[in-house]
């Protein structure tokens, strides 16, 4: 049913995004990705924003491999891998990556954004505090927020505490300042108080 308040709020939000030039619009491509693409309604443009650094998005061998994969495995399992399983090609890819990097195992994601979002919730525990610079990629900031939060006031309170004696473990804390900003102010303050040693102190690691 119609909701006048919701409609009004949406109109105000869209107007604000338009005024601040933050409103996103889709561009429709009439061909494959490359150094130059044809954008519908615009024409041919030079692409400076793609992650196709190696020019593989439309490389003939990559395209052929994609077609071969579709013919052999179909269009996917239609669910996540821990429910319906993983294809043998995924295992081969991850084993090859692990061998190349020199690790025990590797795990692939559909995007780097998804991979970044999984890092902090997986690796950080209840005794960890994450400091994230305001210039970090949005996927890193989202990952920090998924790991848990503390308000900026609580973060400020922790930074103002006297430095614990060497060898004394800090009290447990976990989270991310809700105001994700530059760490420089806090690092300089802690350095002057003798709390920063070797780039890591008091269980705090910068990102």
Question: What are the key terms here?
Answer:
207 residues; mainly alpha; 3 domains; two-stranded antiparallel sheet; two-stranded parallel sheet; 8 helices; extended; disordered C terminus
Give the N-terminus to C-terminus distance in angstroms: 46 Å
Structural class assignment = mainly alpha
Largest sheet: 2 strands, antiparallel
Strand order of the largest sheet: 1-2
Average pLDDT, rounded to a whole number, is: 78
Number of helices: 8
Could you estimate the helical fraction of the residues in percent? 40-55%
Rounded Rg: 24 Å
Order of helices and strands: HEEHHHHEHHHE
Q: Would you identify the regions where 5 or more consecutive residues have pLDDT less than 50? A: 150-154, 165-183, 194-207
Question: Into which percentage range does the β-strand content fall?
Answer: 5-15%
Tally of separate domains: 3
Principal-axes geometry comes out as: extended
Q: Could you give the count of β-strands? A: 4
What does this structure look like?
By secondary structure, the chain is mainly alpha-helical. It folds into three domains: 23-55, no CATH class; 60-108, no CATH class; 114-206, no CATH class. It has helices at 4-19, 60-73, 81-84, 88-101, 112-123, 138-147, 152-160, 184-192, and strands spanning 36-39, 43-46, 129-131, 204-206. The chain has a two-stranded antiparallel ribbon with strand order 1-2. It is extended and about 55 Å long. The model is unreliable at 150-154, 165-183 and 194-207 (pLDDT under 50).
């Amino acid at each position: 049913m119609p909701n006048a308040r919701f409609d009004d709020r949406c109109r105000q939000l869209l107007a604000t995004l338009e005024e601040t030039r933050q409103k996103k619009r889709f561009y429709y491509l009439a061909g494959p990705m490359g150094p130059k693409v044809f954008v519908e309604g615009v024409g041919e443009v030079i692409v400076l924003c793609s992650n196709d650094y190696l020019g593989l998005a439309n490389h003939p061998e990559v395209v052929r491999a994609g077609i071969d994969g579709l013919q052999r495995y179909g269009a996917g399992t239609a669910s996540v891998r821990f429910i319906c399983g993983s294809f043998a090609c995924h295992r081969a890819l991850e084993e090859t990556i692990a061998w190349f990097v020199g690790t025990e195992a590797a795990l692939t994601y559909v995007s780097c954004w998804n991979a970044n979002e999984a890092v902090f919730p997986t690796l950080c525990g209840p005794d960890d505090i994450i400091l994230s610079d305001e210039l970090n990629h949005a996927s890193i900031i989202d990952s920090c927020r998924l790991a848990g939060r503390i308000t900026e006031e609580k973060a400020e309170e922790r930074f103002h505490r006297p430095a614990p004696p060497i060898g004394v473990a800090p009290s447990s804390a976990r989270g991310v300042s809700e105001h994700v900003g530059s760490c420089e102010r806090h690092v300089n303050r802690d350095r002057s108080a003798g709390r920063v040693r070797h780039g890591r102190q008091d269980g705090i690691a910068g990102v």
